[in-house]
Amino acid sequence: MGIVELAYDDLGAGTPWVFLHGFPLTRMLWEPQHVLAGEARLVLPDLRGHGGSPPNTHATMDAMARDVLALCDTLGIERFGLVGLSMGGYVAFELHRLAPERVTRMVLAATQAEPDTPEAAEGRERLAHQVDKDGIEPLLDAFLPKLLSPRALADEAIVSKVRAMVLSNDPEAMAATLRGMARRVDQRPRLGDITCPVLIVHGEVDGAIPLAHAQALERTLPRARLAEVEEAGHLVNLEVPEAFNATLRGFMEEALVEDALQASP
Ligand code: MLT
């Protein structure tokens, strides 16, 4: 299967950071982070099959990671910081496996290293079948309550943004991505290979991936620290952008200081 040319935003200038959105969303997820373009270069792709990228039914995490690497090649970006939220984190793990030397730092938001349990994989297959048959609405019904905290579900602006992202996606591509996530590999055996600094950010009331997964990541990754965000659900960057951006900004600043120290004689 070949590389897919991705739709993307390329904002700001300076140290490059590549942001990978979650499922079944688009790069619009990162709008509250656009302000960070004042300090760094932000590359925000739509992963294959999502948003403005062409619909695609070969939707493995590996294929998505290869598309992102190809996009970075096209943009002349050799090394970069990598931010992945949820499925974006699954893709980030794959990208790191493919090209560890290109990833300077990672931000793992609302994600996990564990694969699906057999029950979860079966549930995804059932949902994929339904989406193939009935279109995108069943996906919205299944995911919306998991993606947002009760507080965010009561916020009309947040809900309509998430609905717009989900409904803009191609049903066949979404069904394929559900199957791709169900087949993703267990990343735990190779967490020790991720030796770059890692910031883990997780909402305390994440209803899709419970906080315990982030705590396990922090215990296992060699150079990680966890920022737990109070009252935030799964889409932590969208629900509580001020806290998310402040944490990310701090991590980006640390990176600049470390890079300057390493560059000095
Ligand atoms: C996501 O936000 O990307 C999904 O909730 C991930 C998943 O379903 O495992």
Tell me, rounded to a whole number, the average pLDDT.
Answer: 97
Cα end-to-end separation: 45 Å
Which segments are poorly predicted (pLDDT under 50) over 5 or more consecutive residues? none
- Helix proportion range: 40-55%
- Number of DSSP helical runs: 10
Shape: globular
Q: Using the CA coordinates, give the radius of gyration.
A: 17 Å
Class per helix and strand makeup: alpha/beta
Let me know the number of strands: 7
Percentage beta strand = 5-15%
Largest sheet: 7 strands, mixed
Please state how the strands of the largest beta sheet are arranged side by side: 1-3-2-4-5-6-7
- What small molecules are bound in this structure? D-malate
- How are helices and strands ordered from N to C? EEEHEHEHHHHHEHEHH
Structure description:
It contains ten helices and seven strands. The chain is an alpha/beta fold and 265 residues long. Strands 1-3-2-4-5-6-7 form a seven-stranded mixed beta sheet, with helices on both faces. Strand 6 (198-203), helix 8 and strand 7 form a beta-alpha-beta unit. The radius of gyration is 17 Å and the shape is globular. 45% of the residues lie in helices and 15% in strands. It has helices at residues 61-74, 87-98, 118-134, 137-147, 150-153, 156-167, 171-182, 211-220, 236-239, 241-263, and strands at 8-11, 16-20, 41-45, 80-85, 103-109, 198-203, 224-229. The structure holds D-malate (MLT). D-malate binds at residues 22-23, 86-87, 181, 208, 234.
